[in-house]
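PROTOCOL LOG
Step 1. Enter all chains and additional molecules of the complex.
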Amino acid sequence: MSPNIVLVVTIGVLFAAGVYLLLERSLSRVLIGVILIGNGANLLFLVAGGAAGRPPIVGATPEGQMSDPLPQAMVLTAIVITLGMTAFLLAMAYRSWQLHRHDEVQDDVEDRNIARLAAANERATTDADTEVAAETLDEEAAEARDETDEGAPARVLEGER
Amino acid sequence: MSDLSWIVPLPVVIPLSAAGLALALYRRPNVQRLVSVTALSLVLAVSVTLLVLADDGPLVVDVGGWAAPVGIDLVADRLSALMLTISSAVTLCVLLYSLAQGGEDDEESAPVSIYHPTYLVLTAGVANAFLSGDLFNLYVGFEILLAASYVLITLGGTGERIRAGTIYIVVALLSSVLFLVAIAMIYAATGTVNLAQLALRLPEIDPGVRLVLQVLLLLAFAIKAAIFPLSAWLPDSYPTAPAPVTAVFAGLLTKVGVYAIIRAQTLLFPDGRLDDALLWAALATMVIGILGAVAQDDIKRLLSFTLVSHIGFMVFGIALATDLGYTAAIYYVAHHITVQTALFLVVGLVERAGGSTSLTKLGGLAKLTPVLAILFFVPAMNLAGIPPLSGFLGKVGLLEAGVQVGTPLAYVLVVGSVVTSLLTLYALVKAWNKAFWQTPSEPRPPVRLPFGMVAPTAALVAVGLLLTVAAGPLYAYTERAAVDLAERSPYVDAVLPDGERGQGVSDDVAEDEG
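Step 2. Run joint prediction.
Step 3. Record the structure below.
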């Protein structure tokens, strides 16, 4: 059996348009992209079910002319799931608009922070440990060997008390 | 044996019913809590029973009396039962932790009334994914747990959580569509979505088509399991959720993906044509994940990156495709679920005691709360794989399996995993030094950590230690599970005893015949 060419082309167009929209920044466009791709997948199921036939009801249709009911059941489940997800994404886009007056997907601040530090070739964290306290490792070790001693960290603590 | 098979659907049915009950009781938080705790305790008891029963052979239920290839079946074999037991222990601990957190701070981070029903739906989805013997039902299980996780990750709807949730949800939706496409193509090629029947039919189709199907399925699962290069969504989205939610996500959700990969690789596509590609992916996941962890300043993000990195260890074991490899991978999954969840719970406590999750701002916690220091140190060393803890045992198992395979690529992976372990140790020791030993920038008032939050965390750490103490029997169990997986016939025979149909008989048919 060769699949219906109209369906196959439609699936291709739905997926292409969906992928294009998914790459957008605005969440409502992403949402439409998800819907298009989801519908493309549903059509794919119909194609997977084989040739069209009459209603698969025992007694009403001779066995040879029935369409395959299983993929239709699966498509139904998938449609319901997509509906739920769409509703949730819509709610999120609305919430984003409430908070920021736009629904664009934002960058991760922490990611950019680390990228900026890496570009400037700086350390991720700076504190007493990373600062050079002494000339050599031995001197550093001698200075920091005991918490109760006159070591650098202890002094800081005392100073604050 | 078969007379007890009615308990197989319980891990799905109990939490789902309890979720409905909890939703109806949203005005009475105390009753709601009681319902959730009772439900998850029951699920734990059922899972342990299944763990024992499944050791004698897989338990199969044809749901609704519809025989297997047409109807949906639930299968509890050793792998499923083990995953179910670990996951229900973890979800129960996290629930108790979040109860205490809800009692301590009422608003903002505290779980609201929607938390309990959603959390129960999440556990039902996880259980459904583990038990499913049907590819489409596996998809439904994924969707149940994902839908619940969407709600949990955006709980409260703050700006930061909406940002993180957007990334998480769009990526998850995309992987779901990929999974759906894979199912449609598999149905078109074989005319079935039953896993056992697929195991019989897939070898008969064209090898090229089979490869396409395998790639599609693995892509969908790899996004869920966060395997490099499909892992970038995870560290961006997990850290912003409330601590218990992050903990349960980190512990369970990626492992459901790993479980699905194990099933697909063993039952559906045993010819292993993608093993080399998976090995490279495992190497990249391990090394790049841990390099990300080393660069982080926020301890939650650091742990998210170690999570990604250690998924690589499991994929390493799976991709070796030997009994030894599967054994070690399954043991590693069990170890990693408990240890990663425990660490995220501890970080929730650290945030409480130290007022931040930034390593620059934290300090002096070892003096402030020694109990917390111990609770962090044990799972941290466990994750890094310090002997004699379970992380070490799992890693040794993987190294042994790698050396046994002995190809140059396997040796590269062995070296890569040792380097990753060392870098994990480095990242965690850095976190330890900064958060617990560093002189605090400003002295913090002593805090009393609520017992209700410390106790479940301690319990999870103890489960991690139990995996070490009971490593002998557990390793033997995972080995038996791995042998069954590689052999495939126990699973297929249990589902389709005569190679054609399952054992389900609907009442109508039984009446007609009788």
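Step 4. Note key features.
Chain B has a mean pLDDT of 86.
Chain B is about 75% helix and 0% strand.
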